[in-house]
Design a protein that fits this description.
834 residues; alpha+beta; 8-stranded mixed sheet; elongated
């Protein structure tokens, strides 16, 4: 079988190649493809054998094939097909069709030969030889080596297709190849045959059609020349002045081409690019291939693009999402945050506008709009809805956790430890994606009532005293036992327990954290200690160093992480129970002193009542993080790693952690149709590493005055005017915890550097999460790049009575280890000394 018609070429892809397969797909869907046939790989093999040419001598193949004798039986079959085709077409086009060409993961555009206007059979045979020879050119062999593709994978066909004498031709992209926007169809077109555009001889007209709105944008090209086909071959002529000044396509033709292109995209379920020709008003499709660099609609929706930046201020949200995020985590987090923010806050009529997050260079950026309506009316509605919850906000969180989250967490635990088949895994991943959105809806539900309580408390304080003092009020809310403090307490208890056993204590004091487990396992006492640690982790171990990310091990997976905290308690001598009792006593004394300064009144009684509500609600700040932010990503990670095992068994990825470098929509497709994605994963890992080391923009655009003046946004995110400049010897931030301290700086950039911070040094970092809390037992003061008074860094600094300045934007880049500075947590300044 040396030739195959287009209609059946799809069934023999290994013998005909990708270009032929794509033409066959179009033909079988009754799309306007000029008729033709494919000279199969068997014809090449028979020719190689007849000429005693070996594939082992690839370097010499190209030259030998240009003069190879084609066996008679091959020629006869080709001739019969050619003569039949010539009855309908005056000439044919001859194009290579490699099995590796035009595939999704390797574009060979421009690597192989194409010949137009072939009219004679002997000329066809000559062009066939040159198409075969092009497969083994030095350029192609170099390309194959770069792409790690073997010659044995390159069964090659040659397409022989009726030539369209195009009046106009061009290329269609169903996703914008420049902006990557999958919602735009881009058409480049010029006069004559398409080679004028492909070769760069003619600058085409460009047409951009919005798939949703149908809006059409046109940009004229110079259309300098056109290539015309005739009986004696092709010729290049200059276009006329009239042709240059007008568009080569009518609007109706543009829309017809766009409609055809969208139909092809639906067939492939992927963005595609098409080559087309128009002869006497009739449209023909000449080639089709998946776009190798396109992104999907889903990916476009979660990635920050130029359209997003036009009218919005976006800032890098390192307060909550510090560092680069993997594709899969971004896939889950962005839709969940946006849904949860609006659904959760809308439930309580929370007075906040639209908020979005998107990814840029693997980092999360946020856009916030202040509430645009009547703020007083909205606040009144909000307070009316939340008022019944305010006396017991803590119970509301407990109810939502137990009713909504825990049943799914228990199911995730089960699904993390049993073998999953592809269909079941796909269904459960989709379930998790939906649950992620519900969990973040609960997240914003449970943080709305505490915000209302705090606002009420601030208003009552201002009425009682005639002034605002948010830091003082926050000092009155420290020392309330929450899940983060419970975790620290349990670790401290284990440190105290270790002091009672010489063997355990020696192991913790003499070994590095990553070697402690091995040593403890060698003794009965050590094994008992490890069992106690495991028991503790059953409740408190579902957390990670990087909370908002699937990459990175949980405490459950890596005992060195909690063990390092225990070692820190042993080293610094911090007594959790005494220090916590001291903080509670100090809080009580400040509160009682404040009350004593006030005359008895109904307003004072009201303040006391709301204060008790706020004290109860103070646990929400860390408890919601414990149950939602931390536990959700940790349990999801463990489940997804098990799905990664399933993909590994089916040859999709090389190791289970590779799953995190796929986007959600890609993951679903790969579980439906498994294929080797190791090349894609390698590219994503390299990109992630590059983004990890980039200096990324802090923002895009300028914040509005409304945004900068919004106290809630300032308290949480620490936003400042992006044009505000620091003085040479002073950094400005937000006052987060009162007091001053002068000492040496220690810049800590990751959990791996925790051991570098020495007792009495000033902790300087981008931001902190609950897993960083152990450092507050070592540091003498805290300075961060990100955050506001209600950020984790600010809250924990007050808990540990440490001066803190947050939201400086650039402390980690401007300060270096050993610098002497004064941290003034009351004024929000950091003074740099010589």
């Amino acid at each position: 079988m040396f030739t195959i018609p287009f209609e059946t070429a799809l069934q023999y892809e290994g013998a005909t190649g990708a270009k032929a397969k794509n033409l066959s797909i179009l033909a079988n869907h009754q799309l306007p493809v000029p008729d033709g046939f494919v000279v199969t790989a068997e014809a090449l093999s028979r020719t190689l054998a007849a000429n005693r040419i070996s594939l082992d001598d690839a370097q010499g193949l190209s030259e030998k094939l240009t003069t190879a004798v084609i066996p008679d039986e091959v020629k006869e079959e080709i001739k019969a097909r050619f003569e039949h085709l010539r009855k309908s077409f005056a000439a044919v086009a001859v194009r290579s069709s490699s099995a590796a060409e035009d595939l999704e993961d390797a574009s060979f555009a421009g690597q192989y030969e194409t010949f137009l206007n072939v009219t004679a059979f002997e000329d066809l045979l000559n062009k066939l030889r040159h198409c075969w020879a092009s497969m083994f050119s030095e350029q192609v062999l170099s390309y194959l080596k770069k792409m790690n593709i073997s010659l044995s994978d390159l069964a090659m066909g040659v397409v022989v297709q009726g030539l369209v004498y195009s009046d106009v031709s061009g290329v269609i992209f169903t996703a914008n190849p420049i902006s990557k926007n999958p919602h735009e169809v881009v058409i480049n077109a010029s006069y004559g045959l398409g080679e004028a555009i492909v070769s760069g001889m003619a600058t085409p007209d460009q047409f951009v059609i919005d798939k949703k709105s149908g809006n059409l944008k046109k940009e004229p090209g110079l259309k300098e020349v056109k290539i015309l086909a005739g009986p004696s071959g092709t010729r290049t002529v200059e276009t006329t002045e009239t042709e240059r000044q007008q568009f080569c396509l009518t609007d109706a033709q543009v829309r017809s081409l766009a409609d055809i292109a969208r139909r092809v995209e639906e067939i492939y379920q992927l963005p595609v690019d098409l080559e087309f020709g128009i002869e006497q008003g009739k449209i023909y499709l000449l080639q089709a291939r998946p776009i190798t660099t396109a992104i999907s609609d889903f990916q476009w929706s979660i990635l920050l693009n130029e359209e997003d930046k036009k009218d919005q201020f976006w800032f890098y949200d390192e307060t909550h999402f510090d560092g680069p995020k993997s594709p899969l985590f971004t896939s889950f987090m962005v839709p969940a945050f946006v849904h949860g923010f609006h659904a959760g806050f809308s439930k309580f009529k929370f007075p906040v506008g639209k908020s979005r997050i998107k990814s840029h260079l693997s980092h999360i950026y946020m856009s916030i709009e202040p509430f645009r309506g009547n703020i007083k009316e909205r606040l009144a509605q909000h307070q009316e809805i939340v008022r019944p919850l305010l006396p017991n906000v803590k119970q509301y969180l407990a109810d939502r956790v137990n009713q909504v989250l825990m049943p799914i967490y228990r199911q995730l635990d089960q699904d993390s430890h049993r073998e999953l088949e592809l269909d079941e895994a796909r269904e459960k991943v989709a379930d998790l994606f939906r649950f992620y959105q519900k969990a973040w809806e609960v997240h914003f539900e449970v943080v709305a009532p505490p915000s209302a309580v705090n606002r009420m408390l601030e208003n009552l304080y201002q009425q009682l005293t005639g002034k605002k003092d948010p830091i003082f009020l926050q000092e009155l809310l420290v020392g309330v036992m929450n899940k983060s403090l419970e975790t620290d307490r349990e670790l401290w208890k284990l440190a105290e327990q270790a002091k009672q056993d010489p063997e355990v204590l020696a192991a913790l004091q003499e070994e590095t954290a990553d070697r402690v487990t091995e040593r403890l396992a060698r003794s009965d006492a050590g094994q008992r200690f490890l069992r106690e640690l495991q028991r503790m982790l059953e409740t408190y171990g579902y957390r990670k160093d990087n909370t908002h990310e699937f990459l990175g091990k949980t405490w459950i997976e890596d005992l060195s992480l909690p063990l390092s905290r225990i070692q820190t308690y042993l080293q610094n001598g911090y007594h959790f129970a005494d220090e916590h009792a001291r903080i509670v006593k100090s809080r009580t004394q400040k509160y009682e002193a404040f009350l004593d300064s006030l005359p008895e009144s109904e307003l004072k009684s009201r303040f006391m009542e709301v204060y008790q509500w706020a004290l109860d609600a103070a646990t929400i700040r860390d408890d919601h993080h414990f149950y939602i932010d931390a536990m959700l990503s940790a349990k999801s990670r463990l489940f997804l790693l098990n799905v990664g095992n399933t993909l590994t068994r089916h040859g999709v990825i090389n190791e289970k952690e590779d799953i995190f470098f796929l986007y959600y929509d890609e993951l679903l497709k790969l579980m439906e149709k498994p294929q080797d994605s190791s090349g894609l994963i390698a590219e994503r890992k390299a990109e992630f590493a590059r983004n990890q080391n980039r200096i990324i923009p802090t923002h895009f655009g300028k914040p509005s005055p409304e945004l900068l003046s919004n106290p809630q946004i300032a308290q949480v995110h620490g936003l400042r005017n992006v044009e505000e400049k620091d003085e040479d010897r002073e950094l400005k931030g937000f006052a987060a915890s009162p007091g001053t301290f002068t000492g040496k700086v220690r810049v800590i950039r990751s959990e791996a550097e925790f051991g570098r911070l020495k007792k009495g040094e000033i902790l300087v970092c981008k931001t902190t999460t609950p897993t960083w809390t152990i450092l507050f037992t070592v540091a003498a003061a805290v300075v961060t790049d990100a955050g506001g008074i209600l950020s984790h860094s600010g809250i924990i600094a007050r808990e540990y009575n440490l001066p803190a300045v947050v939201g400086t934007r650039n402390a980690t880049s401007k300060l270096k280890d050993g610098d002497t500075v004064t941290v003034d947590g009351s004024s929000g300044t950091v003074t740099i000394h010589d």
